[in-house]
Amino acid sequence: MRRSFSLLVSLCLVGCSSTVREPGIAPDAAPTSLPATLRHADCARLATLHAPTAAAWEARLQTARIAVRQAGKPSNPTLSLSWENLGLGASSIQRTLSISQALATLASAPGTRAAAAHDLAATQADLIAERRRLVASAWRAYDDLVAARNRARLATEVEALLEEAARAAAKRATAGEGTRREQELAEAEAAKARGERTAAEGEARAQEIALCAALGTERPISLRLGEGLADLPSRTPDQIAAAVRERAEVTAAGERYAARLERARLTAAGYRFIPTPTAGPRKEGDVASAIVSWDIELPIFDSGRLEGHVAEAELLAAAAELRSTARTGAFQAAGLFERDLTAHATRDDHARPLAEQRHQLRLSAQRLFEAGELEFDALVAARRDEAEAGAALLDAEVAAARSRLDLWEAAGLLDVDDAPSR
Hints:
Blueprint: H1 2-16, H2 40-49, H3 51-71, E1 78-84, E2 94-100, H4 103-175, H5 180-215, H6 237-245, H7 248-269, E3 276-284, E4 287-295, H8 305-370, H9 376-411
Antiparallel strand pairs: 1-2, 2-3, 3-4
């Protein structure tokens, strides 16, 4: 009896003992590991390789893969040791060693493996979708820095222009060719430009820090950019529609539906009611024998019908998710396609011609003022209009680049390796 009990305890300890390995995550990217000149593709690659992000993705993928391996294994058999006739006088102690195996897990193994395989495929598609969203986020951070630096450059140019105008107004006032009011107005405009330039430079630095965070650098650093705003090519409506149908989000929803369908079929098959056999030797004194028994769940209070209804409800939810994902993506892409057309038309047909027109008007005003044929107030107004038109053109260029990037992301076209850049 004591020997049998020791055997049972030893088997339990062997089966349950394990160790835990603490994870190690690589440090953040050192400044020296970045390219000397950053491009959009570099930012996409660095963002997706950021150690915590990569580790989280790998953990999800490994969990799904292990689930597939686990689904292909039968349940562990159950070992039972029992002693009877204890303390009943001269009666011999009856010792029974039996082992049982649930046949339900063997019968349902193919369906369970298929469901787990669909879960793995859904996880892989989810990670592809997340990677594309992360790539788009890195590209936006890059473009935000480009735009912020261009605004700072524009503000610096305006400041230099108005500083020159202020000096000219002061010289004219001293020579008696202009008024003190003109000088004060010019100095006020220059002071305003200095404040706007300071704010623009601060915003540029903040956007640089945001891009460093997106790239996973260990600390904020100065970045050298090798490209302007993203310049993705246009796509026809048919090309966008075809890409939307093949998006990773749709694939993931389809795989989740397939997994739910497999599990619904397993529930409907009623494998839980397959009997569980038990067999083993029995010994009482010197008499040895064998036992065989069958255990079966009786569907008296729970026939499994409600469990089947739950599985069907979950299958319905998965089907609704699949339909919603496909439909929502199609409508979103259609709306973004129209916004993209509008943004590019605004840039090319309105903002760019207006900026050129304001520039020519300012040059004309400058010539007229130097010839004494135009008041200083009108010259200041022309310079202000030119600066505003330049800022509006920059905003239009940013909006056009952002709308194209949003469209590519929604259509599932943007990725680390295949997204072109200027």
